[in-house]
Design a protein that fits this description.
alpha/beta, 9-stranded mixed sheet, 5-stranded mixed sheet
């Protein structure tokens, strides 16, 4: 049977369904599944929070006897291996579905092509690649971690009309309006982890959680690049570390044992590089240029106090994202949102490790003392394609995606 417009319509619905649990399924992908019989959806499900059960057995259970002879629409190839749960391909076979329509083939070597082969050997018709581009976007985090051994990285910037992203010494400055800020909250809720530099953490004192009513539990892990353990104990991040996880990435050079711990570069087969400050940043000073607090000089006491507050400290060169990102992937982090500041954004851009750029442009003017944006719409790096423009109140969002 050839792919029809109805197939694309049902697959689009399955992709929309899959997005409900983005950022909430641990190391498993958030997959959507519809069971359709005679043009009617008789069962539907998304991978459960925590990663299990998978979407297919849930949707089949909802469909019950109606699944026999039906068509299953799945955003990712059904698994074919025995893990903590039986193969989803076996469940589709057992329920007697007649056809399976797949958006994306699973790159996991335990599955890749084998799920499809199992289904076809059982006499089930299989069509793959339906709305594949859309399916890949919904599965971007999982696919990037599987194929590149690192999280999918989104860089978000909000830029004023005069090309600024903030104002020196003024803490957080509202650049975009409430509609755009609500959209950013939704993005955070779909992301495994959010990252800022120590300069932003000190000058803005951000919370970096999801504050949309009903979505607070979907707040991402919060990561701070903090080579010298300068994060203030009074900061909102430290004060809420027991509610939402906080990881401080410190230099290996200040590890208490003198060797790497936590996010270990050596464990990944990489050679740790000596700390090198970002361009424009002097050693012993924060990203924003402020002098480190005196308490930062007593590393042992600061380390003890941070850990007592619930902050996890790991030792991995903060200024080498090519080492940091694979280490985060080993912890099951599939998607990472980089929110600031300017030098941290430039660090990831220069390393070629940004996959998506969300560039908000607002009509406000920052004026004197502004912090210049590291990126404008006129100088998007080569290799990125413009994926669309959206308006949120008076603010404009342009989205760019790396072309593979």
């Amino acid at each position: 049977m050839s792919v029809t417009p109805h197939d694309e319509s049902f697959m689009a619905a399955a992709i929309r369904l899959s997005r409900r649990h983005l950022g909430r399924t641990a190391t498993n992908p958030s997959v959507g599944c519809l069971i359709v019989r005679d043009g009617v959806v008789v069962g539907q499900a998304v991978t459960a929070v925590g990663g299990r059960p998978h979407a297919e057995p849930q949707a089949l259970a909802e469909a019950g006897a109606a699944a026999r002879g039906a068509t299953a629409y799945v955003t990712l190839e059904p698994c074919s291996h025995h893990g903590k749960t039986p193969p989803c391909a076996d469940a589709l076979i057992a329920y007697g579905v007649a056809r399976v329509v797949i958006s994306v083939t699973d790159p996991d070597p335990r599955v890749s092509g084998r799920g499809i082969a199992m289904l076809r050997e059982a006499g089930i018709e299989v069509d793959a690649g339906v709305l594949e581009a859309e399916g890949r976007r919904s599965l971007a985090g999982y696919l990037t971690r599987q194929t590149k051994n690192r999280p999918y990285v989104t860089l978000k910037l909000a830029v004023s009309a005069d090309g600024m992203i903030g104002r020196e010494g003024k803490g957080q400055v509202a650049i975009t309006g409430p509609e755009a800020r609500a959209e950013v909250q939704a993005l955070r809720a779909e992301t495994d982890a959010i990252l800022v530099g120590i300069g932003t953490a000190i000058s803005d004192d951000p919370l970096l959680t999801v504050r949309t009513p009903g979505l607070e539990a979907q707040s991402p892990i919060r990561i701070v690049l903090d080579p010298s353990l300068a994060l203030p104990l009074t900061s909102k991040l430290v004060q809420t570390a027991r509610d939402v996880p906080v990881i401080v990435v410190a230099s290996e050079e200040i590890s208490p044992s003198g060797s790497e711990e936590g996010l270990s570069p050596s464990a990944l087969g990489a050679n740790p590089q000596p700390i090198s400050p970002l361009v424009g940043e002097m050693s012993g000073r924060t990203e924003g240029g402020a002098t480190l607090p005196a308490a930062a000089m007593d590393l042992d006491s600061r380390r003890t106090a941070l850990e007592a507050a619930g902050v996890e400290i790991v030792y991995c060169n903060p200024y080498h994202p090519e080492i940091l990102l694979p280490a985060l992937a080993t912890r099951g982090i599939s998607s990472l949102l980089v929110e600031g500041g300017a030098k941290t954004a430039r660090l990831f851009l220069d390393a070629g490790l940004v996959d998506r750029i969300q560039l908000y442009q607002a009509p406000v003017v920052i004026g004197e003392g502004g912090i210049e944006t590291p990126l404008r719409a006129t100088d998007i790096p080569s290799g990125f394609a413009h994926r669309g423009t959206s308006l949120f109140g008076v603010d404009r969002l342009d989205e760019y995606e790396r072309e593979n």
